[in-house]
Backbone:
């Protein structure tokens, strides 16, 4: 009992430092600090890269990083370094590990038709990191005692880290809540425009992935969009409404369709 009280007091002290988790300086209570979040994300990235094959095309790797950093430059979280990498796989998927480790599958890149559509996926993934959706779910799933070990680095800290990495991998492939998705869609469209991308790329992205439909299994599909998930139509409507409310849009927005299509010819064809 005494220990539990001490843990709770200690956590309350940590919690007092709120983190920025959205546009307009929006704050959330985050127990696990950025340094630990990055360490967990790095552990997850290591696992991903030991299981998957990165695309051996430096031009493509540089391209996704360039577009990613363009969105990072306008996002609301700058206390971490973001990395963007392409995995060679037919899966129509993309994800972000906590701490800013973002991955794209060639299967998804092949479905996109412009840089703005790819940027829409990127902005959505960056938004999950900005809003700390992954780490919030992780700290809820680990529980108070484990979060305490992780944060204060006492005995068992490395075990807590391993447990966090394992739990993080499970959570990331289980998908986020509807509210998390709505928030990431919303921030993402905002960031696209601020980064100079035509937000209609988000509509193109949603439409294409939704149209692929049942030919792909839900478990391996991007954000469950490539399925008959009923929320998809709602997400498309929300995005269209948000874009309508943003008009008049700045005049200098780009979709960079030509550059994207040129790059796409170099992607492996897939099976
Ligand atoms: Zn998402």
Residues:
């Amino acid at each position: 009992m005494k220990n539990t009280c001490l843990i709770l007091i200690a956590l309350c002290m940590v919690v007092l430092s709120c983190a920025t988790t959205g546009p307009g300086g929006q704050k959330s209570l985050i127990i696990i600090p950025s340094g630990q979040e990055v360490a967990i994300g790095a552990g997850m990235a290591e696992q991903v890269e030991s299981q998957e094959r990165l695309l051996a095309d430096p031009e493509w790797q540089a391209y996704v990083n360039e577009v990613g950093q363009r969105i990072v430059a306008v996002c609301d979280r700058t206390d971490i370094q973001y990395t963007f990498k392409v995995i060679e796989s037919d899966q129509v998927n993309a994800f972000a590990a906590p701490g800013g480790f973002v991955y794209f599958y060639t299967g998804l890149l092949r479905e996109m038709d412009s840089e703005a559509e790819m940027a829409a996926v990127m902005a959505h993934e960056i938004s999950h990191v900005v809003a700390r959706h992954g780490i919030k779910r992780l700290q809820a799933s680990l529980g108070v005692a484990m979060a305490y070990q992780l944060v204060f680095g006492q005995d068992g800290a490395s075990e807590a880290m391993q447990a966090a990495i394992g739990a993080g991998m499970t959570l990331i492939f289980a998908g986020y809540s509807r509210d998390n998705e709505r928030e990431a869609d919303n921030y993402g469209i905002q960031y696209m425009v601020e980064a100079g991308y035509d937000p209609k790329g988000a509509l193109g992205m949603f439409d294409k992935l939704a149209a692929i439909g049942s030919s792909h299994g839900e478990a391996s599909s991007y954000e469950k969009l490539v399925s008959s998930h009923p929320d998809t139509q709602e997400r498309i409507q929300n995005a269209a409404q948000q874009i309508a409310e943003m008009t008049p849009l700045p005049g200098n927005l780009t979709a960079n369709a030509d550059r994207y299509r040129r790059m796409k010819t170099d992607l492996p064809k897939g099976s």
